[in-house]
Input
Amino acid sequence: MKKILILTILVILSAIPAWSQTPSPSANTGGGGELLQQLKAMTPAERQEFMRNHPDIRQNFREAMLNRYQNMTPAQKQQFTQNHPQIAQRLSNASEAGAGVSDPGHPRVNEVNQREGDQQQRITQGVNSGTLTAQQDTRLDNSEQRIQNQEASDLSKNNGHLTAAEQLRLNHEQNRDSRRIYDDKHDQ
Output
């Protein structure tokens, strides 16, 4: 998952020339251009390790990628989708489903997304404090991504809405992940 994320970041940032000149949304990154050059110079294993050790930068890249994708013109999105279909699909799903996405007309979606955001913060806090290992972080991130993919699939079936049964299933999965986060953070 992290290799895909890192490669996605590099492909997206290099796909639109203006992106590589845009500063990163975080002051922690020291400017988008410098960090991009450093990431390009790293081997895939080094990039994966870097992103694992810097969850705040990883989260900032995710948010920046999604923001830039959402702000593309329809023609740019079409071109990007033709060149990078898998990445475009992930970004499209993320724009509808995921932590922090809020829509006043969809309370079920908002509840699911709020929980995803809360759990992502718990994972990040665990990594930063050292109570979660890199392996646990990867496993938890994969599980969170699976839930977001399921939510995106459910949303696409129902014109951007979740049924009560879908919300119940997603809540059940989030409850399971919440217990895993707690157990992983306290098993040392």
